[in-house]
Amino acid sequence: MAACGYGSMALFARLAYADGVDTTSLLALRFALASVVLGFWVRHQRIALPRGRELWGFAGLGALFASMAWTYFSALHYASSGLVALLVYVYPIMVAVLGALLGLDRFGRAETIALATCAVGLYLLLGQSMHAGSPLGVILSLLSGLLYAIYILCNSRFGQGVNPLGAAWVVIVSAAVIDGLIAAWHLTLPASPTGWGALLALACFSSALANSAFLMGLRHVGPTLASVLSTLEPVVTVSLGLAFLGETLNPSALAGSALVLGAAAGLALARARAPAPVAPCPS
């Protein structure tokens, strides 16, 4: 469920863009609607919210999350949804590299193999950018992955005793406030029911529901299996792009995609034998 929700974000965003919504307005409306939906659930379940230092910390993570979302959805203007999703999914390798550089995690044989495999995959995949996007789209996609990697590292080292759904709500509300203030200068709304439907699907299915499903799944299967299963996200994005947006992937790009996703999944499986202190916990 979480993989389908996250993987369909690009499709809903494309539909909203086609209906006249700009990136900042899209994000402001997405986070505002998602905060209402998730806030209702948090209140209904009487979930405790972070307080004091932890409250401000997760609010700061919301700013980082808003930046990551802006680069992702902006990249969709310059590259195909499939290419953007596959490039962003380099983030598990970025987490491993950054964690090692900051002394938060190990970097051994499995990480080295994963990094080398990912590099080869990117070399093959970036050749697709000549047909499915521009250099700016590639840069924004990789920047989004980097910001998400930083977000994961910060999230894994902060607020360990906080209910994840309560923390996620604070993050989403913070992002909604930031994007809302920016969009207030020039807020564009959908021109038809199709655009509004895409926005509601993006907020409810691809944000609130997907986030809750991931966190609940994480509790049942653990971070390693959840990380492996999350490789389905870009697969869903690519499949929807091929089916509904007329996008294509050449054989070289398909091979590169397989290497990038295989490197991420292989690294997660390798770490299952020796759990690392850093584990993905997206909000």
Automatic annotation (TrEMBL):
Residues spanning the membrane: 28-43, 55-73, 79-101, 113-130, 136-154, 166-187, 199-218, 225-246, 252-270
Membrane topology: Multi-pass membrane protein
Family label: Belongs to the EamA transporter family.
All residue ranges annotated as the EamA domain in the record: 2-126, 136-267
Family annotation (SUPFAM superfamilies): Multidrug resistance efflux transporter EmrE
Alphabetical UniProt keywords: Membrane, Transmembrane, Transmembrane helix
Name under which the protein is recorded: Threonine/homoserine efflux transporter RhtA
Pfam families: EamA (PF00892)
